[in-house]
Amino acid sequence: MEMVRKAVFDVLGDKIVGANFLELYAGSGAIGIEALSRGAARVVFIEKDRAHYNLIKQNLNKLGIADKAAVRMMLVEDFIPANQYPYDIIFADPWYEDELTIIGWENLLAEGGILVIEHSSAKPPPANPNLRIWNNKRYGDTALTFYTHARG
Description:
Keywords: Methyltransferase, Transferase. The chain is an alpha/beta fold. The chain is built from four helices and seven strands.
């Protein structure tokens, strides 16, 4: 997990600074919290599990960074069509067993934005004709696929 998290931020580099960041399937919120520590302007966390939701809120408060974040307890599938704001960077780490559909996710990305999906390296990355893959990393059973808008 630590190696994968390091890889995400190594690839993103300075793009984090000042970014409007979205963490889908947030779990513990570790990626979004690290994004804040690396200079992200704001992070929105989407998590369906109440225990994880509470953990993220507690950690943000303990670290004194709750004012730079919003935590929503909801399904990603409900958030996608309801979202009205573009994000510079989106990170998603869904359950590996689930079939992930990322159709419509291009609407979440700001112009020049980056979508990062963590997924099983045994499966091909999810496809979206409006997004193109610009980087792919593999770490054992885990893969990271980085997307941008296909038109840009």
